Amino acid sequence: MLPMRYDPTRHCVTALGIEDPRREEGELLFPARFPASVVDRDERAMGPYASAGQFQQQPTPRGGGVIKADWWQPWGEGSYPPMDLVVASLDTAYTTKQENDYSALTVWGVFTTDRSVAQPTNVARRDGEGFVANERVYVEGAPRVMLMGAWQERLELPDLVRKVAESCRKMGVDRLLIESKASGISVSQELRRLYSHEDWAVQLINPGAIDKLARLYSVQHLFSEGMVYAPDRRWSDLVIRQCEVFPKGKHDDLVDTVSQALRHLRELGVLTRSAERMADIDEQLRHRGAPSEPLYPS
Fold first, then answer.
1. pTM greater than the 0.70 cutoff
2. What Å distances lie between residue 152 and 87, 93, 97, 235, CA to CA?
3. Tens digits of residue pLDDT in 151-177
4. Taking a C-beta distance cutoff of 8 angstroms, is the pair 222, 72 a contact?
5. Span 216-267, pLDDT tens digits
6. Residue among 192, 204, 198 nearest 172 (CA)
7. DSSP string, 40-104
8. What is the DSSP letter of 28?
């Protein structure tokens, strides 16, 4: 493995002890034949994905394509914060055949902090002569979302239904989201038949004509703005890596559950960006004035 630009995180040593002699990140492989000017020119012409595959020997640009790996915020505490809402997102493919896709589930929790006034509107002057008017400043903690659990397996329908139910019960899920497709409809019907007494509800989601790539792009800003968290676990790393290489990776089952869950939370209005929440607060506090006089008083 000899990438055009040296990447120390992918340094390779063969079984015969042969290794890449470079040590400085970004150092070119063969500058006498491919100088920086030529490499830069070809990278611009090919684009990031072709450059990553042909020059760097990996399927996606370093750091990720649509969703970059370093956009996920690390959660280092031993327990999760109190959650306002917990949803599970399921992508179904109930079969155990090796060539088929996985069934995949991710669990997400929305958590917030309380809004408080950081500065009072009026402050008494020290000389006792009235008040000083201040602009009211709010400290607003925008909602954030935590990846609380994830798995992908090839399962037959009965085993899939049982594992999904166990995950929802264990994680305290409020709502289970399933894409409204042939296999998803069957799974939802079976879950409702067997587990209608549980505390979580089943909801079918119809993505319409929007393709998988467009769905992920629609929630990209949540990642880039640092609203999405994940603990340091093997299963969360699996989700992060699959999102990182999408749409060039071999599997996208977990990616589908990510976009489905985050789009649903956005549509519910529980996962709003900080700017959106502050604009809503300002609108609620806007003085409307006295109501107009009726045209025909009684």
1. no
2. 17, 10, 14, 9
3. 999 999 999 999 999 999 999 999 999
4. no
5. 988 988 988 889 999 999 999 999 989 988 877 778 899 999 999 999 999 9
6. 198
7. HHHHHHH-HHHHHHHTSSSSS-TT-SSS-GGGSEEE-SSSPPPPSEEEEEEE------TTSPPEE
8. B
